[in-house]
Amino acid sequence: MAKSISVRIRTDPPGSRNATLDIVTDLDTWEKFESNNANNVFTTKKGSWRLTGDGGSSPPTELRKPSGQRAGILYNFDPDTAQTGQSNQGLTDEAGTGFIWTVLGITEI
Q1: How many structural domains are present in the chain?
Q2: Is pLDDT above 70 for 2?
Q3: Alpha-carbon distance 48 to 21, whole Å?
Q4: CA-CA distances (angstroms) from residue 99 to 8, 33, 47, 94, 109?
Q5: pLDDT digits (tens, 9 = 90+) for 39-71
Q6: Could you tell me the residue range of the domain that residue 36 belongs to?
């Protein structure tokens, strides 16, 4: 069954910024939301995601732009096994900064 996963992004200080990602498992898509339609964390509004690495127990997930280029990465995040409250680090290529991601909720769709 498909899931919609809500993930909060908070960039590293100084000048911390916030965004929310909606990651859909069945469609392999993601979409970002920032206050006032800002582009402080990601300039790309939506794209696809894919697991990378060796397929170990906690592979990173790349957030891809529609062009196929990487927009960012969520370390130790597997959308198929994600749980509410799970948290780790990531990187936004577009803003050039690290962040902490936290799963806020999961809805079956």
Answers
A1: 1
A2: yes
A3: 12
A4: 10, 15, 19, 12, 28
A5: 989 999 999 999 987 655 667 899 999 999 999
A6: 3-108
